[in-house]
Amino acid sequence: MTAPYRKPALFAGHEFSAFQGGDDPAEVSAIAHDTARALLSRVRDEAHPDIVEKVVSFADDNGIDTLAELWSRSSAHSLPGALWRMYLIRDLIRAQAAQMSVLFGQGLSVLSTADVVVAGAPTPAGPDEMVNLADTILHGAFTGDFSGALDRSAAFCRIVSAGCTAVANESDAAHPERATTLTLQASRLTQTAHELAVCARLWRDGALD
Predict the structure, then answer these.
(1) Is residue 8 domain-resident?
(2) Which domain of life is it from (predicted)?
(3) Fewest C-beta atoms under 10 Å: which of 15, 117, 120, 194?
(4) How many Cα atoms within 13 Å fall on the side-chain side of residue 78?
């Protein structure tokens, strides 16, 4: 592992970008795991609010593509894979806050599971509350119980997935293309929720790497 990763929480975009590329799958995997471990441990060890905020908002300042180059090809059941999904969910919420609010509300109306409590969103949850929820969950990954943050992300995905399905069913006759898009989104969110839940269990068992 090279020296720049000693302070990953302070990486600027160009510093992350320096490790993009490379066609060797083993090298790509090693970099992904090393950066994820170093980033998480560094931030959790220091837990300084400014550092935490900088890491949480990294994609806002540098683009999600930088993180994609590092982590998106990692196993879904790995630390870099888990972090990538949490950042991706936050990016989705911030980019589509109004739509996420509607779908989240629809999901709450049709679900009677513990996901409503686990996700921890206020009711009703408007666009601003959605953005705050996304930030709170990712903050929790670096300052609190990592498995709890993963469970909250998974719960959010399940709620929005249920909302997508509900709206798709309502739209099927009049807007079949929209219904198809929402059904596909529901499937992806359900899969992501499952992956995050597995990561949470692995973390609790000390087996998430």
Answers:
(1) yes
(2) Bacteria
(3) 117
(4) 19
